[in-house]
């Protein structure tokens, strides 16, 4: 096994001294310029004037001394020390370096720096303990290795090595290795002995909706529409790579199915319903191995349909790969309607994951179970692929905060609800929640189109949910709602509307959109749910899937005014401005002639939402996003 060691090389304790006998910069003119070496505010800088010092002639740091150079100042960056214990100035007329103090106040001009008392430094494999006076109070010959600031160790903290298919990392104490990653053969990964890391097409994936490891999770559905073979729970696996990809689906230790998906195509996989999760109206429950695990040998996108072909009640979710999961989420759902509950489901990726539930002001009446109390609170430990589904009774779990000490997935929604409550008919809602770390302070909100008259907008209801207390909202154009959210988890709801607007906040928010039901007078199809994607995470390239057996499928596009966008390599010709915001919206009907895969490309970031209708049924999901962490 090859160990990759990260040595902090110390030539005598602490700080590196600036070598006044060598200048690595190129000299370009004759006017002197004074440049700081470091920015330590506790150290006095000597600016008394230049002193003659020999300078190097090379630009790679290896040039030989050639005496005083009078050609002028260097244009390269000034030399700096390796820590904050030395400072000074470089006067580039003749290059002078002055180092005046160490962190303990001892003058070090012309002398090696002094390391603080009790700091451990290494001289080869000898650990030396500094006395703070320029010497050492003790030293020890290490039988194996010496690590700076640690001493004698069995391994260098942070170094990695391969142990079979696992990556092991030396612990902070240097006493041994802990398994920190597994190179999964079902994802085409192997442990590379040269790098001490997993290698393969699925290694080092960025923070986007494209990945190799997913957890499809069945959620509550109206009981007439969650029984196979008439209605099926299914996933669509879209291959975004140029290579054939193998798919493996397991549930716990059991193999469920295996398949392949060719480049730039999609594979639909029907999966058995998990009755403990989808049937009935509660109570809340912890279902062991309740989720499926879907792994691939190359990057793919995955969407789940609950169910795939129902003409009455369904929805779809964009699933997020495990490399984007965190331990912090807000829930978007809806309240109990006609005795039918809203819900959220938490899926664990690792054993011994502790999940803590903090209900919102509206989410404190819960069907207790699975470790969840009737007031919505709970601390529950989940193992890998376990699902905790929290079922609301006379409450609305929207705004509930889910935290975990290891990464989890959270899906929020409703078994079957009207939107709004007095407009028929009910439909299943679900969407995979975005981690709080990826939420932002600005979103562009547009409604979908009507079917069959797609020249008109279909009305929606919009919820804006606060991730922090004391959140203030601004709308452009303005919307007739409250502008202040007092507590984390509080939300405002914009009633039935076809308005297009930008909402901004002084703190991170989440925006959930809900189609209005078919009897609302805005065309066919009943409710579906969508999470808005903030502009910082819009992409220039998407591969999405829309089932070809649906009556009509559309993409809703949002971009900056003037953006060039193509759908299936055809320019999007018609855009409608969104007030004076600088954004525009377009809706494009997708062809059902192909396999359901569609490519959207743009010369700048564009938002993509995919939706479809089948009689009264509908689905709606974000086409994708880059899940970069957004600063506070």
SS-based structural class? mainly beta
Mean pLDDT: 85
Q: Count of helical segments?
A: 1
Q: Rough shape? A: globular
Overall helicity: under 10%
Tell me how many strands there are. Answer: 42
Low-confidence parts, pLDDT < 50 over ≥5 residues?
A: 1-109
Q: What is the rounded distance between the termini?
A: 42 Å
Residues in β-strands, percent: 35-45%
Largest sheet: 8 strands, antiparallel
Written account of the structure:
- The protein has 632 residues and is mainly β.
- 1% of the residues lie in helices and 40% in strands.
- It has one helix and 42 strands.
- The strands form nine sheets. Strands 18, 21, 22, 23, 24, 25, 26 and 27 form an eight-stranded antiparallel β-sheet that branches. Strands 35, 36, 37, 38, 39, 40, 41 and 42 form an eight-stranded antiparallel β-sheet that branches. Strands 13, 14, 15, 16, 17, 19 and 20 form a seven-stranded antiparallel β-sheet that branches.
- Strand 11 and strand 12 form a beta hairpin.
- The longest helix has 4 residues.
- The N terminus is likely disordered.
